[in-house]
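To: structure subgroup
Subject: Chain for Friday's discussion

All,

I'm putting the inputs and outputs inline so they're searchable in the archive.
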Amino acid sequence: MINNIGLTKHRSIHTGEKPYSCDICCKSFSNDSHLTRHIRTHTGERPYPCNICSKSFSDDSSLTKHKHIHTREKPFPCDICGKSFPENSGLTKHKRKKPYQCDLCGKSFTEKIGLTKHKRIHTGEKPFHSDISGESFSHSLDIHKQIHTGDKEYHCDICGKSFSQAVYLTRHKRIHTDICAESICENYQLLKHNCIHTEDEL
């Protein structure tokens, strides 16, 4: 019996059916528990009291959120900086921010590594040293090493030409796009030209 009730409630999610209506404002709901919670907004009933401060709430989820104030429990940690929040909404709002700010120019970053890389612009620090050329860089040596090794792992699927960086391949592909555009234009002009002859013949 309980399973059938649960199945009926679940099906209403897919069907969009809302068979439970509020007698006061006629708003409809997919299940009776949502209707019960809604009716309390009209009646002002708050059957869930806090046993610490006696403040009351209309539903148990609101009471649970409230209790975090007393327990100082923060079950929603940020996976980037580790800061925790009592509610998921607080974590969501926090993630939209960029907590790592440059104290020299004010630019902000979502991750600490982004700020660390950025600060090298100001300090001129170049912690990556090439053992081939002896040069130093503020960023990873991967791109620089390709100059010495000659590795070209990015291949054009149109003409087969290879490149050491993805940005060069993207730039190269525009050549093919431009050629195609020119061909289309030329074909269109040829079509217009042929129409002149056709009209003359008619």
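Points worth raising on Friday:
Helices lie at 2-15, 32-43, 60-71, 88-95, 112-123, 142-149, 166-201.
The CA atoms of residues 24 and 42 lie 8 Å apart.

D.
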